[in-house]
């Protein structure tokens, strides 16, 4: 029973080949352009394209209770990073070293940007490599989203950015580590499926006053002589803007041994307390009231003990 079936299948394949050859001959005889188009389609199907080898993906999400400005900043980062993935807001703010790696494993991400907000005022950003670390905790200040700035710059959505780092990143070891973390987090891999093979904007990371300043610029090329004698490239800011102050660098994911701690960091709570003390020092009545409140609190705590 097997031999007749094989012979029948072989006859069908031979008839199909003869039919295709006859169609090609007719097309070539009727119109040469059709035959040329068929050859181009065959060459294109046999052509080998470069592979997507650097499979870096970044998970960008936040905790609950963030403001509308932080939510817009998250949206801007996702738009500017084609290799990013998003997830729902997290309800819990503890046990991040256990929960976030599981979410990244489910999303198949090896980088993470997690933003949380405390007291509706203070914004903190975590950047971490998955699943073993290291991780960095930043205080985010001076946030301006693209919708707020309304700058004239523009870029193609999904295009790959160039990353520009200040020379100060090579001056100290912790800055070198931060440079590598920022590069692997924000750089779009080559041949990523959601990216476009086009470079028209730059991510700039500059260090000033022990803080990292982020800027996004559009790159435009002009003809020589219109801009200046030597410059042919013009940068136009797109947005968003934000500033990162390093708090601590950990060896693990969202915790672990401390690799670096910023000795100049002052928490926002301490800054607000210092401002209140300065205002109270100018008014004697407020100063006396503050001292009496502190004495009462100390007395009640001593009685409880």
TrEMBL record:
Composition bias, Basic and acidic residues: 276-291
What Pfam families does the entry give?
Brix
Lineage, top-rank taxon, reads Eukaryota
Q: Which intervals hold domain Brix?
A: 56-255
Q: Which GO terms describe its molecular function?
A: RNA binding; rRNA binding
Stretches of the chain forming a coiled coil according to its record? none
**Gene Ontology CC annotations of this record:** nucleolus
Q: Which UniProt keywords apply?
A: Nucleus, Ribosome biogenesis
| InterPro entries named among the record's database cross-references | Brix (IPR007109), BRX1 (IPR026532)
Q: Which PANTHER family does its entry note?
A: RIBOSOME BIOGENESIS PROTEIN BRIX, RIBOSOME BIOGENESIS PROTEIN BRX1 HOMOLOG
Q: What is the recorded name of this protein? A: Brix domain-containing protein
Source species: Monosiga brevicollis
